[in-house]
Amino acid sequence: MKWLQVILLSAVAILLSNCATLLKIPNGNSAPQMGEKTNLQFKIKKLPPPKEKIVVGVYKFRDQTGQYKPTENGSSFSTAIPQGITSILIKALEDSDWFIPIERENVSNLLNERQIIRTTKQEYAQSNNKNNNQPLPPLLFAGVLLEGGVISYDTNVMTGGLGARYFGIGASTQYRQDRISVYLRAVSTLNGKILKSVYVDKTILSTTVNGSIFKYVDTERLLESEIGITQNEPVQIAVKQAIEKAVQALIIDGIQDKIWEPDPKYTKDTEAAINAIKEEQKQVDFLAEKAKYYDVKGKHYSVFGMAEANAIQGDYESPVLTPGVRFGVKYHLNRFWNINLSSAFMTLENKEIIRKRYQATDLNIEYLMLPANKFSPFIFAGGGFIANREPLKFKYQLGGGFEYFIKDFSFRLQGQYDLGFDDDWDDFVNGDLNDRALRIGFGISYHFRKKQ
């Protein structure tokens, strides 16, 4: 047992040394630094310059959700969204170099200060008997007002995790996804017309990874160790990215609709920016079409084919993994549920003992867990039979797997466990358990969906 202790203690030492590097435990006060820059901030700065900068005013661009920060026991008194997002928008407008932002959020402070300046200058002129009091220059007025705000903050849009433990050694990972939505619109001060309105979604991801060891290395010695790390995407950075994306989209959409003009010297840069945003829109439209397909109430059929690997679990030892094929048809009741009927050709074999070919027929009801996603897990259960030249052998089955969708096609990886009502699939009756079979398959489906 000494060599085992040495190996385990060495593994723990390596794990803890790597843990110190991974976790980067704070060990003192950090110096202040400039604010973090995002990739969208660089994209905004690379936009082609305007023919003439636009004077814009932002009176109010704030959190319109009124939502408080969620906690395990409900919610706290802290808001989920930062309250100074007008400042974030003005910074994004300034970075774009397309706009001249003017102070409107606290315009009363500006007017009060100008009044103080006028009063002070008048008093100074009177005390010195001077009449050459120069008036203050006029304030800039906005040709365009920017309105909108953060209109939604949805928590736990998607959660999940994965973990395993074997003989006291295990690891797990979990994630949570939130989402915010930002609307931004440009309003003409000339006639009040809404020139353009854009909408941006941004997900906020939180992940955690844990590993642990809980094991007796001897009768009186217990080894226990844990390691973990959690990463939470800052909400302020997510809001910043969403607003910067909205500003970028507003500029490019305004160019396409000829609301404002870029500098004609940068025609190629303008075309590249427009093409890039069009490619993004194509991806959004594709996902919308896919979601539209799954949200339809109309029913539809699909057909599928699958290559399988089969292994009997009977009374003999040394089962052999053998190939097989399966074909079938599905009737989709709605976006979650479907009924499928399939026929498979399979071989059940024990090494140098028995080899029998069967035709299996399965009738299942299946549940697709995340139908609006490209990648979704599913589970199914049902009944059927396997046939040879002998009488039918009835069974029931259950299984699950993952499916990936590409337009009208989908690819799936699944595992199925067949449980028999008989103990003679291998021509040998022994023990209290009936014969079983494990089937693993990979296949492709084609959906005859209704065009919307």
TrEMBL record:
Protein's UniProt name: Curli production assembly/transport component CsgG
Keyword rRNA-binding in record: no
Keyword field: Cell membrane, Lipoprotein, Membrane, Palmitate, Signal
UniProt entry tagged with the keyword Flavoprotein: no
Signal sequence bounds: 1-19
Organism: Cloacibacterium rupense
Coiled-coil annotated residue ranges, if any: none
Domain of life: Bacteria
